[in-house]
Design a protein that fits this description.
The protein is of the alpha+beta class and 317 residues long. The protein folds into two domains: 2-167, Acyl-CoA dehydrogenase/oxidase, N-terminal domain (Butyryl-Coa Dehydrogenase, subunit A, domain 1), CATH 1.10.540.10; 170-316, Butyryl-CoA Dehydrogenase, subunit A, domain 3 (Up-down Bundle), CATH 1.20.140. The protein contains ten helices and seven strands. The protein has helices spanning 2-20, 28-33, 52-65, 71-83, 89-100, 169-205, 217-245, 251-276, 288-300, 305-313; strands at 105-108, 115-116, 123-128, 131-141, 151-164, 207-208, 211-212. The strands form two sheets. The protein has a five-stranded mixed sheet. The chain has a two-stranded antiparallel sheet with strand order 6-7. Strand 3 (123-128) and strand 4 form a beta hairpin. The longest helix is centred in the middle third of the chain and has 37 residues, at 169-205. The chain is globular and about 70 Å long.
Length: 317
């Protein structure tokens, strides 16, 4: 069974890489046509009935390609929030709309200052005490350093019907934040792996003094450090994805470990990639700046590394 899922994830990764390589900006309709928006939507509502493990594969590939999409806010977060609710006609309508691509939803998590993909969304879901509500909101675009993300400030005017969580509200909200953190960690892992691959390729090709610069000891050590950091990130992210997908009791711990380490690593690896590419790395044409800025924003989204380390430290008090 494990081998079966590994092959399925490999196939999904290959298809995603092929689609995302075509252009950096991928529209919502194209994502919906690929079936990614409905991965976690139950099959009777038009989705694939898959799990967060499959969503994580797409998140990683989007980071690897530095794609500009609405997938994070309008699919990953929205589907996760709706799946955490008790069955209702409104919930099922919104899930079916996400799966078909006819509805693009966004999720406003407090403090509502940097809400992913709220701009242009058909529906904004707001977490309230004990549930989630469709809300009438005022949306103000928030320009950020990373041009591949669309964030906005959301001011809630009034909420309509409040849909109740299916179970303990506190635990449900905790799971939503864990999902968000791990999704961004997956994206950062993709960023780091892309920068490592690009750097190794460059230092193998680039020659100085009639030899590849990758043969210089300082460059070897830098690449080795990047590789080790990326390998550790992959282990932590894989554990966090597994914990979130299976709703394990320690999912919050795994999520914080992955978010803190993977997002810091992506910034460090992209920074080293910039340096090891030499002068060309600082040019607009190299594209490394796109990855560095994406990694920097990922580091702040849904909790900084310091905030997540603080959460982890509470276990020892």
């Amino acid at each position: 069974m494990a081998d079966h899922f590994e092959q399925f994830h490999a196939d999904l990764r290959s298809v995603a890489a092929g689609l995302l390589a075509k252009e950096r900006t991928v529209e919502w309709a194209a994502i919906a046509d690929a079936g990614w928006t409905g991965l976690e939507v139950p099959d009777h509502l038009g989705g694939a009935g898959a799990t967060f493990a499959e969503v994580a594969v797409i998140c990683e590939e989007m980071g690897r390609a530095a794609s500009a999409t609405s997938f994070l806010g309008s699919a990953v977060l929205a589907a996760g929030v709706l799946n955490s609710l008790a069955p209702s006609a409104t919930r099922d309508r919104l899930l079916a709309g996400i799966a078909s691509g006819t509805t693009r939803s966004a999720v406003a998590l407090e403090p509502f200052d940097f809400v992913p993909d709220a701009e242009g969304a058909d529906t904004v879901l707001v977490l309230t005490n004990g549930g989630v509500a469709e809300a009438a909101v005022t949306i103000t675009a928030q320009p950020v350093l990373d041009e591949t993300r669309r964030l906005a400030r959301v001011a809630v005017e009034h909420c309509s019907e409040v849909m109740a969580f299916d179970g303990d509200p506190g635990a449900a909200v905790r799971r939503i934040y864990d999902r968000a953190a791990v999704a961004v960690a997956c994206d950062s892992l993709g960023v780091a792996e892309a920068m490592l691959a690009a750097t190794v390729s460059y230092v193998t090709m680039r020659h100085q003094f009639d030899r590849p610069i990758g043969s210089f000891q300082a460059v070897k050590h830098a690449c080795a450090d990047m590789y080790v950091a990326v390998a550790i990130s992959r282990q932590l992210v894989s554990a966090a994805v597994h914990a979130v997908a299976r709703n394990q009791p320690d999912a919050a711990v795994a999520a914080s470990m992955a978010k803190a380490y993977a997002c810091s690593t992506a910034v460090d690896v992209a920074g080293k990639a910039l340096q090891l590419h030499g002068g060309i790395g600082y040019t607009w044409e190299s594209g490394i700046h796109v990855y560095l800025k994406r990694a920097a924003l990922n580091r702040s989204l849904f909790g900084s590394p310091a905030a997540h380390r603080h959460e982890l430290a509470q276990r020892y008090l």
